[in-house]
Amino acid sequence: MTTHPYTSLENRFRRIGALHEAQGILHWDMAVMMPSGAASGRAEQLSEISLVVHEIMNDAETADLLAAAEADPPTDAHERANLFEMRRKHVHATAVEADLVAALTKASSDCEMCWRDARPANDFAAVSGKLENLLMLVREQATAKSEALSCASYEALMDQYEPGIRESDIDGLFDDLLGFLPGVLEKVLERQARGAAPVIPEGPFPVGAQRALAEEFMKRLGFDFDRGRLDVSLHPFCGGVPGDVRITTRYSEDDFAHSLMGVLHETGHALYEANLPEKWRLQPAGQARGMAMHESQSLLIEMQLCRGSEFLEFAAPLMREAFGVDAAAWRSDNLAALYRRVKPDFIRVDADEVTYPFHVILRYRLEKALVAGDLSISELPAAWNAGMEKLLGIRPPDDRHGCLQDIHWFSGSFGYFPTYTMGALAAAQIFAAIRRDNPGLTGAISQGDFSPITGWCAENIHTRASFASTDEILAEATGQPLGTAAFRDHLEARYLA
Amino acid sequence: MTTHPYTSLENRFRRIGALHEAQGILHWDMAVMMPSGAASGRAEQLSEISLVVHEIMNDAETADLLAAAEADPPTDAHERANLFEMRRKHVHATAVEADLVAALTKASSDCEMCWRDARPANDFAAVSGKLENLLMLVREQATAKSEALSCASYEALMDQYEPGIRESDIDGLFDDLLGFLPGVLEKVLERQARGAAPVIPEGPFPVGAQRALAEEFMKRLGFDFDRGRLDVSLHPFCGGVPGDVRITTRYSEDDFAHSLMGVLHETGHALYEANLPEKWRLQPAGQARGMAMHESQSLLIEMQLCRGSEFLEFAAPLMREAFGVDAAAWRSDNLAALYRRVKPDFIRVDADEVTYPFHVILRYRLEKALVAGDLSISELPAAWNAGMEKLLGIRPPDDRHGCLQDIHWFSGSFGYFPTYTMGALAAAQIFAAIRRDNPGLTGAISQGDFSPITGWCAENIHTRASFASTDEILAEATGQPLGTAAFRDHLEARYLA
Question: What is the Cα–Cα distance from B27 to B45, expressed in whole angstroms?
């Protein structure tokens, strides 16, 4: 009896999946546990595992098996979807020559290390040479992948994070947004200016109490501490592996909301990972669909649910209790005003949900021009500042508040930014569908019962993994492919009603 | 230009070394951080890495390279030693057929899981079938390895932990021990009975204070927290990797000494790993010499140094200060009497240094007979109890206090036990040599300056890694191969002077 090529491929990708999981834990450890002196050894461990994966992918037999399996595809639809994803992974892994991969790894690492000093020093010139070198290699990578994927160069870069996405998709969404968002923003700011400023709760907020409250909300959202952890790291993230999802935060005794909202955001990511189908755990189609869908899940929890009035009605007494105070600051309407403050400002990661898309649109325009060669690195700071002024009417005082603020480009990640706003749009669309499907939702949320939301997502998003495209999953779940209407409705209902 | 076979081998073993390091961190995480539900996924990640190592080892080209390098060995003595260790690793990795390796892995895991319940339930019958099955496979493994190594079956098992060791070596050491140890024990017990019982310091001992004190001693011993960690786990161990050494302990508020002595013991292991030569980090000859030498380093710190009077003179005020009390219990002579209490008892891990060798000798005799087929599993409990009565004059009340107490056999580790006593003997011999080479040692220790000890070990033991045999390293460092004289002198000086 001979083994079907698809079955042999499943075994190869299962091996790759297990090795990627090992890397997932090692990466988490690096950010959360590893002592400072162990960095170079860890880099060696991780790169050795990457090399093994590279060898399995680039083995001639893997290519032969893929061709044979595609010539005689499995009858099962899930297996066919998995084969499709295997091919996609294979294209990404083999499109670029080993020399270029090595050069990219080195240039990314060099540039990122340099950026870590250049940002606080507000010294774009110190990093611009390394960024230029990195961009040159990224362009080569984009060209190679665009040929293998039959798409435009910039699309090939986006495809690494959001499979199958096209510039025309993004252009359509962003044009729609620019059609109404400036007007919405103007009205929100006017309205906000007419009201009283919210009262800021006074700390200190003890770390132990913050952690206990975060865990309480995580548990209520369905986070399983037998299959995950909450820890501390410099830059909060959701890591680990699907059966062992590990989120991190950073506590400040002066401000509990920043950490708490971060935890809720990462919990959204974590629930997605935790609910991926166990049976397909190590297979390509068993992974989360892409970064847009992933961001939709974090923003669904943080922005749609937890900054919503119903949630804050439920949460306000728990917050009061956790921090042992009782004042006007802790009324849910005050918290709502506080956590939904809108203000055009320079830093993306601190932006509210109304101004956030402008930050992304600016970066999308700039990175497309950089990859196309229409904008040079030396022109970047001026182009950034001009773009910011045009989009949000504010001009960064320096590059630290401008083009130096994000790690993405300096670590070689071009094509990632659009997924943030795609995620925000999808989150609004999904939350509207959940409301539609759950008439008693408002009552459930204010009672602290989030199962209508998490259950719906598990069924309609999480367990679908990568068995369909982002738009297919969204259309089946919400009735529409990704659009801007629900986001507009959401902003109008929350900020202008 | 062609690459020398030795250079190609270095690259292969560097890869294996990096993969083993990745496993080291994943194992640490499993014991210290991993949530309970993630066990099966972790097993899959670890076994995938093992499979990759297995494939590199069993690749025909690895065997060809070894033969070619041995035919034209490198001129550098360190490289020749490394080649020798490569061959040893290769023999162990390839002597046993893949089917038997898989069967052993499964049988070990099954038997160990069963033992975890059988021990607290005091139910040897519940696990004896699985142990019998496992022993049968261990015998097959021993036969295969003994042919490849040209030694006896039991020696082939010991060789996994203590390379090159022979039964005649162990028999010689243990016969010597049995020549004086019963007499020493009798005299120690008589003398002890004549004195007053030590006063036991009263708790509770807050965990935070215990941890701070442990860290203080670790730092004074030279543990580098930029290249290592101290954490909590159920079973204390020293894990991680040489540039990132991670030790664990377990705190009880009722008894700080158990945790503290455990930390000091693991610190001894940690210093060995931390001082291995960085240049050879991922090569076979760059690893610690064997389990006897490793245990010598932990016992040197715990038993020779930290239970010694000079150390306790230095430590007693720090302990008093840490736990905020001031009483007769905290006098260094009382602590010395307390931490050196000798008592024949049933449990090896709780045994004092005088009775410990009897526990090891019993296990050595029994496991040799089991591997040879001279003793059956069904006869084991009775043989254990009879042996205990003969050696220490006490009879276990049940199997939980007898043959069920240790994990080793139930997890497939036969041939490990002798290294504990070899380590105790080596520790005494090394400490005597350090005293010989450092006339001012007593004063330094009571001042809290341990650098004469740690510096001596770094130079004479740690940085020697596996570039010579255990006996060669010991002979060069102390003037003698491993023997019992220094241990006898130590016991007489500490307990009978």
Answer: 11
Which residue intervals of B75-203 are DSSP H helices?
77-94, 98-118, 124-149, 153-158, 167-194
Q: To the nearest 5 percent, what fractions of chain A are helix, strand and coil?
A: 70, 5, 25
The residues pairing with A113 across neighbouring beta strands, listed in sequence order, are: none
Residue whose tokens read 């039959």: A150
Residue B2 has pLDDT above 80, yes or no: no
The answer to whether residue B349 scores a pLDDT higher than 70 is yes
Question: Is the bond preceding residue B204 a cis peptide, omega within 30 degrees?
Answer: yes
End-to-end, the C-alpha distance of chain A in Å comes to: 67
Amino acid letter at A62?
A: T
Q: For residue A241, give how far its alpha carbon lies from the nearest alpha carbon of chain B (Å).
A: 9
Instruction: Decide: B232 and B247 in contact? Cβ < 8 Å.
Output: no
pLDDT at A355: 98
Q: Using an 8 Å CB-CB cutoff, list chain B residues near A34.
A: 244
Average pLDDT over residues B375-388: 98
Question: By CB neighbour count within 10 A (0-12 exposed, 13-18 middle, 19+ buried), where does B362 fall?
Answer: buried
Nearest to B14 by CA among B405, B280, B210: B280
- Tell me how far apart the alpha carbons of residues A131 and B382 are, in angstroms, rounded to a whole number: 74
pLDDT tens-digit profile of A159-212? 999 999 999 999 999 999 999 999 999 999 999 999 889 998 888 999 999 999
- Residue type for position B444: A
3-state secondary structure of B390: helix
What string of DSSP letters covers A456-493? HHHHHTGGGTTSS-HHHHHHHHHSSSS-SHHHHHHHII
- Under DSSP, the state recorded for A301 is I
Cα-Cα-Cα-Cα dihedral sign, residues A342, A343, A349, A350: negative
pLDDT for the residue numbered A1: 57
ipTM of the complex: 0.94
Name which CATH class applies to B5-158. mainly alpha
Domain A165-223+254-497 = CATH 1.10.10.10: no
B197 touches chain A (CB under 8 A): no
At B245 the three-state DSSP class reads strand
* Cis peptide upstream of residue A204 (ω within 30 degrees of 0): yes
Judged by CB atoms closer than 8 Å, whether chains meet at A243 and B52 is answered as no
CB contact under 8 A, A19 and B45: yes
Q: What is the pLDDT of residue A325?
A: 75
Q: How far apart are CA B135 and CA A463, in angstroms?
A: 44
pLDDT level of residue A324 (50, 70, 90 thresholds): confident
| Residue-wise pLDDT tens digits, A44-68 | 999 999 999 999 999 999 999 999 9
Domain limits, chain A:
5-159, 165-223+254-497
Mean pLDDT of A251-267: 96
* The overall pTM is greater than 0.80: yes
A-proximal residues of B, 219-258, CB under 8 Å: 224-229, 241-244
* Three-class secondary structure of residue A230 per DSSP: strand
Q: Which of A85, A266, A302, A310 is catalytic?
A: A266
pLDDT at A156: 98
Contact flag A33-B241 (C-beta cutoff 8 Å):
no
Q: Annotated active-site positions of B, please?
A: 266
Give the HSE-up count for residue B133: Cα atoms under 13 Å, Cβ half-sphere. 16
d(CA A330, CA A328): 5
B230 strand-pairing partners: B247
Structure tokens, B192: 């002890």
CA B148 to chain centroid: 26
CATH class of A5-159: mainly alpha
Nearest CA in chain A to B52: A52
For B186-224, what is each residue's pLDDT tens digit? 999 999 999 889 998 888 999 999 999 999 999 999 999
Q: Does B277 touch chain A (CB under 8 A)?
A: no
